[in-house]
Automatic annotation (TrEMBL):
Full protein name: Exodeoxyribonuclease 7 small subunit
Primary localisation category: cytoplasm
EC number, UniProt record: 3.1.11.6
Keywords, alphabetical: Cytoplasm, Exonuclease, Hydrolase, Nuclease
Length: 78
């Protein structure tokens, strides 16, 4: 991952990921381009997941500092 990609906010990465998903769902993307989009989407997905894990860790640390015992976990939308 390049420095530019690492500096992306969660929201920026999600917006790009949603754009890729829309393009792939349209179904008119040539195979080679679809593979390129897929690879980029996987990188963005990992970036977003890493950001969420970092926030989860930070929230747990903050709660521990305030004597909250339960670890903070992010809940997925249904």
């Amino acid at each position: 991952m390049t420095n530019k990609e690492e500096e992306q906010t969660f929201e920026q990465a999600m917006q790009k990921l949603e754009g890729i998903v829309e393009k792939l769902e349209e179904g008119e993307v040539p195979l080679e381009k679809a593979i390129e989009y897929y690879k980029e989407g996987m990188k963005l997905s990992k970036h977003c997941n890493d950001k969420l894990k970092k926030v989860e860790h930070e929230m747990t640390e903050i709660m521990n500092e305030h004597n909250e015992v339960e670890p903070y976990t992010l809940e997925e939308e249904e």
